[in-house]
Write a structure and sequence with these properties.
By secondary structure, the protein is α+β, with helices and mostly antiparallel strands. It has 11 helices and 8 strands. The chain folds into 3 domains: about 120 residues, Acyl-CoA dehydrogenase/oxidase, N-terminal domain (Butyryl-Coa Dehydrogenase, subunit A, domain 1), CATH 1.10.540; about 100 residues, Butyryl-CoA Dehydrogenase, subunit A, domain 2; about 150 residues, Butyryl-CoA Dehydrogenase, subunit A, domain 3, CATH 1.20.140. The structure holds flavin-adenine dinucleotide (FAD).
C-alpha cells in the first residue's frame, strides 16, 4: 500500500469509527489505561478502545501477531497526524504500552511475548512498575527487595514505594535482588507477577490533594514463577535501563502525537486580550508575548529534533541514552508551559474548588501542580544531566 492510500484509508476509518465524544479534550478521569478493574465513566471510551485495539492501532508499530498493526515509522507518523487532525483521544495509555510492552518485544522470549503483548494491546491488563524503594530512588541499583529460588518459583520479600497505580494494576514488572554478594548492578533480576498473588499488599499514599496516584507495595513470601524472569537472571539491570529509556522518551513527549489542546497563545488572548487599536491583534502584554514566542519556537525545535532522532534510528522503537535529553528538555518545557499559562490566567489558575472558577480552570490548576512531578518521575532532572554528561557527552565520572 502506498503512503497516500494508507493516509486515505486511515482518514476514512477514523472518520467512520471515532465517536464524537472521543474528539473532545480528555478529562484526566477519562484516560483509558485498561485493566481488569477499569470502570468507564464514558461508555465511548471503551467502545473507542475496542475499535482501535481490533484494528491494531493501540500499539500501531507492534507486529500483528501481538495485537499491533505492524506499521513502519512513516505509516505510524501518518496515523498520529490523522488522529491529531480530528483531535482524537488516544484510545489506550499506560506502562503496558509504553514501557513493559517495548521491553518485552526486545528482551522477552517468544512465549512471554505471546502471553503478555496481546493483553496489553487490547487493554485487558494494566501494569505497574516496581522499581523505587524507600532507600533506592536515584540510586536504584541499591534496591533490597530479595528473591530466592524455591523449586520452579522465586519467593519475594521486600517493599517498593511510589508504585503508580498499584492499587488498580493487574500485573507488576519488578526489580528484585537475586545475588546479594555480587556488585550491586550485577545481582538484580527483572521479573513479572500477578498483583493478586498471595503476599502482595498495596497501601495507597494519600496526597494533600486527596488523590492517591501512587502506593507503597509490600511483598511477603510472594511466589513468582521462574519462567517470568525477563532476560537473564542477575542481569535485570540491562532490561531495567532499557525500560527506563522507553519511560523517559514517553515522559519527555518523545513518542509524539497527542491531542491538540488550546495553544498558550489562545489561552493568553482569552484572559489578557489584544492591544487596543492594533490591527494585527497582538497580545496586550509584551513581556509575556516574547516569552510565549520563545517557548513556542523551542517546542517546535524540540518536536523536530525528536522526529529527526527517530528518523535517524530508523526503528522508531529503541531509544538510547538520548532519551535522557528528551526527558530532561521535554519535562522542563512542560513545566515552563504551565508557568506561562499561570501568568496568562492569573488568579483564575489558582482555584482549588468552589464557585468563581470554570471546570477547565480547576483542571489547569491541578495539571500545573502535577507538572512539578515531571522533573522527578522516571529519574530526576539532575540524574538525567548526569547521564547526558557521562553517556552522551563522554565527560569523565
Ligand atoms: C509522579 C511520580 C510517579 C512515580 N511512579 C513510580 C512508579 O510507578 N514506580 C516506581 O518504581 N517509582 C516511581 N516514582 C519514583 C521515582 O522514580 C523516584 O521518585 C525518582 O527516581 C527519584 O528518587 P527519590 O524520590 O528516591 O529521590 P532521591 O533519589 O532521594 O533524590 C533526592 C534529590 O537528590 C538529587 N540527587 C540524587 N542523586 C543525585 C546525584 N547522583 N546527582 C545529583 N543529584 C542527585 C535528586 O535529583 C533529587 O533532587 C514516581 C515518582 C513520581 C514523582
Amino acid at each position: 500500500m502506498t503512503t497516500d492510500s494508507f493516509r486515505t484509508d486511515t482518514r476514512d476509518w477514523l472518520e467512520a469509527n471515532c465517536p464524537a465524544s472521543m474528539r473532545t479534550p480528555m478529562p484526566a478521569d477519562e484516560m483509558s489505561g485498561g485493566g481488569r478493574r477499569a470502570r468507564y465513566k464514558n461508555p465511548d471510551t471503551l467502545l473507542w478502545l475496542n475499535l482501535m485495539a481490533a484494528k491494531g492501532f493501540t500499539a500501531p508499530t507492534w507486529p500483528k501477531e501481538y495485537g499491533g498493526a505492524g506499521l513502519g515509522p512513516t505509516e505510524n507518523q501518518i496515523l498520529r497526524e490523522e488522529m491529531t487532525r480530528i483531535n482524537a483521544r488516544p484510545a489506550l495509555a499506560g506502562m503496558g504500552l509504553s514501557m513493559i510492552g517495548p521491553a518485552l518485544l526486545e528482551y522477552g522470549s517468544d512465549e512471554q511475548r505471546a502471553e503478555h503483548l496481546p493483553k496489553i494491546a487490547s487493554g485487558e491488563i494494566w501494569w505497574c512498575q516496581g522499581y523505587s524503594e524507600p532507600n533506592a530512588g536515584s540510586d536504584l541499583a541499591s534496591l533490597q527487595t530479595k528473591a530466592v529460588v524455591d523449586g520452579d518459583d522465586y519467593i519475594i520479600n521486600g517493599q517498593k514505594v511510589w508504585t503508580s497505580g498499584a492499587d488498580k494494576a493487574d500485573w507488576i514488572f519488578c526489580l528484585v535482588r537475586t545475588d546479594v554478594e555480587a556488585p550491586k548492578h550485577n545481582g538484580i533480576t527483572f521479573i513479572l507477577f500477578d498483583m493478586t498473588t498471595p503476599g502482595v499488599t498495596v497501601k495507597p499514599i494519600k496526597l494533600i490533594s486527596g488523590l492517591s496516584p501512587f502506593c507503597e507495595t509490600f511483598f511477603e513470601d510472594v511466589r513468582a514463577p521462574r519462567k517470568n524472569v525477563i532476560g537473564t537472571v542477575n542481569d535485570g539491570w540491562t532490561v531495567a535501563k532499557r525500560l527506563l529509556q522507553y519511560e523517559r522518551t514517553m515522559i519527555g513527549g518523545g513518542t509524539g502525537g497527542g491531542q491538540r489542546g488550546k495553544s498558550l497563545a489562545e489561552i493568553a488572548l482569552e484572559y489578557i486580550g489584544r492591544e487596543v487599536g492594533q490591527a494585527d491583534g497582538r497580545l496586550a502584554d509584551q513581556a509575556l508575548r516574547t516569552d510565549l514566542i520563545n517557548h513556542s519556537m523551542n517546542d517546535r525545535a524540540f518536536g523536530l529534533t525528536v522526529r529527526r532522532s527517530s528518523d535517524e534510528s530508523k526503528t522508531n522503537t529503541a531509544p538510547s541514552f538520548v532519551s535522557s535529553m528528551f526527558k530532561y528538555y521535554g519535562t522542563e518545557q512542560n513545566i515552563k508551559r504551565f508557568e506561562l499559562m499561570q501568568r496568562a490566567m492569573g488568579s483564575q489558575m489558582l482555584g482549588w474548588e468552589g464557585e468563581g472558577f470554570a471546570e477547565d480552570e480547576l483542571t489547569q490548576t491541578r495539571a500545573w501542580l502535577r507538572s512539578k512531578a515531571n522533573s522527578i518521575e522516571g529519574g530526576t532532572s539532575e540524574v538525567q544531566l548526569n547521564i547526558i554528561a557521562k553517556r552522551v557527552l563522554g565527560l569523565p565520572d
